[in-house]
Amino acid sequence: MKNNLELLLYSFEGELSQEEQQQLKKALSASPELRAERDKLLKIRKLIGGLKIPEDPSFSDKVLQRLNNSSSKTETAFSATVVSLFPRVAAACIVILLLALSIVYLSQGNYSTDALIGVDTFSLEDAYSLIDY
Amino acid sequence: MYPDKELIALCRKGDQLAIRKLVEKHQRQVRATVVGMLGETAEAEDVAQEVFIRFFNALSNFKGDAKPSTYLTRIAVNLSLNEIKRQQRKNRWLVFFQKEEKINQIEDKTANPDRQDTKELVHRALQLLEPEFRSVIVLRMLDGYSVKETAEILKLPNGTVASRLARGQNKLKIILNKFL
After folding, report:
1. pTM
2. Where are the domains of chain A?
């Protein structure tokens, strides 16, 4: 159940039922205080509705400038990221390569081509049997 | 005046003239929302520009199911709320004292209504509202959106918007009481 002030506040938005509208109408005709409240609220609505934002003729220029700057910034940022990441990626690749070579040496004892590609224990007969299979 | 649909299609192709026209068409609404939320400050100017930057950068996600003005207003409210949070974090320890000071300033001004600038007074009063009340008041009373549109923009139920409007107006009445 809304009180009279709530009825008044909701009435501006057309949010009252038929019954509530009747209740508010009665309350308004009976209460000068409520009518004064209504006038204050109407004044507030008028004041806010009347707030004018001054024109800014250069606004669209500023937006376009920022838009162009932001797209060139994005490109620059991408290039900068690639450049800054390159030494780290290169160092990581070298470490991985060294690790792989160490594993090959430890397991095979040499760096022959067959050992590097993992076919040093693979004979020609094995290949033939694979084909037959 | 080009319809929004055509402008959007041209903007997607990077047409600078179309971008300019779209900004010119919607800048008043966006600036009104942001200034209503943040007051007439340098931050408000920055946020209003940022609204369009975000809009153009997200054009690929804009499916056209809402009007561009609604979409822009939603971005404007969200960015303004972010800015309010940023300012609150920055001035965490000063907020209470500032609020007291602002209320006193309004009371001082209302004591001499002949000298006061009504517009500034209303802006100050709006800034004293909590952001959830401020956003519905700005959208409904300053921008002129209906309760249904306001609910759609803020992604809230109609009843919540109506209730916040009622409570927000009552708070404004209390803040501006001496002036009315």
Report:
1. 0.72
2. 4-49, 79-133
